[in-house]
Amino acid sequence: MQVRPIDTDGLRQVEQWLAADPVGGAIFGGFYGHAVARWTPLLQAPSRHGWLTLDDEGPIGFIDLEILDDEAEITYYVSPARRRQGHGRSTLDEVVRLAAAAGARQIHATVEPTNTACLATLRSVGFTELGTNEFDELEFTCTT
Ligand SMILES: CC(C)(COP(=O)(O)OP(=O)(O)OC[C@H]1O[C@@H](n2cnc3c(N)ncnc32)[C@H](O)[C@@H]1OP(=O)(O)O)[C@@H](O)C(=O)NCCC(=O)NCCS
Predict the structure, then answer these.
(1) pTM exceeds 0.85
(2) For 74-113, what is each residue's pLDDT tens digit?
(3) Number of helical (H) and strand (E) elements in the chain, helices listed first
(4) CATH number (domain holding residue 44)
(5) Which domain holds residue 61?
(6) Which residues are in the N-acetyltransferase domain (predicted)?
(7) Which residues, judged by CB distance below 6 Å to any ligand atom, belong to the binding site of ligand 1?
(8) What is the mean pLDDT of residues 121-129?
(9) Which of 17, 39, 108, 136 is the most exposed place for a label (fewest CB within 10 A)?
(10) Domain count, the chain
(11) Which of 55, 75, 78, 95 to mutate to test the pocket of ligand 1 (most atoms within 8 A of CB)?
C-alpha cells in the first residue's frame, strides 16, 4: 500500500465513494460526503493530516489523522470495491506508521458498537479496547 497527502482530486474521490456507499455514508457521510467543503479547511491546521491510500490498481481509501500533543485520533476508510481483501489492516499499519512519524505516541479510535467491520480491523491489528464512552461508543487505543 502507498499513501499520498490528499489533494482536491482526492477529496472529490472521497465524496464520490461516500455518495455510492450506504455503509460509509451512514457512518460519516455527513462530513466526508462533503469532503471538499468540510475537510479542506480543517486540513489547513498543522495538527490535521489527510492521506489517500492506493496501490497499482488505483485509489483504495483514505486516512484522517488529528494529532494533538503526542496523541492521534484516527478515521480510516476502504472503498466498497476494495473491502475484505486485507486493505483495512494494511491501512491501520499505515496509520500507526504515519502517526508515529508525525510525533504521536498514542493512537485513539472511537467506534460505534454496531460497526462490525471497524471493530474487526482494530482488533485484528492489536488495538486495545478501553470500554464505552459517555456516548456509548467503544474506545480503542494503541501505542506507536
Ligand atoms: C472498516 C473497513 C476499513 C474494513 O476494511 P477491509 O478492507 O474490509 O478490512 P480487511 O479486509 O483488512 O479485514 C480485516 C479484518 O476485519 C474483518 N472484517 C472486515 N469487514 C468485516 C465485516 N463487515 N464484518 C465482519 N468482519 C469484517 C475481516 O474478516 C478481517 O478479519 P480477520 O483478521 O479475522 O480475517 C471498511 O469496512 C470501511 O471502510 N468501512 C466504512 C468506514 C469505517 O467504518 N471506517 C472505520 C471507522 S473510523
Answers:
(1) yes
(2) 999 999 999 999 999 999 999 999 999 999 999 999 999 9
(3) 5, 7
(4) 3.40.630.30
(5) 2-143
(6) 1-144
(7) 23-24, 27, 75-78, 83-89, 111, 115-118, 120-121, 124
(8) 93
(9) 136
(10) 1
(11) 78
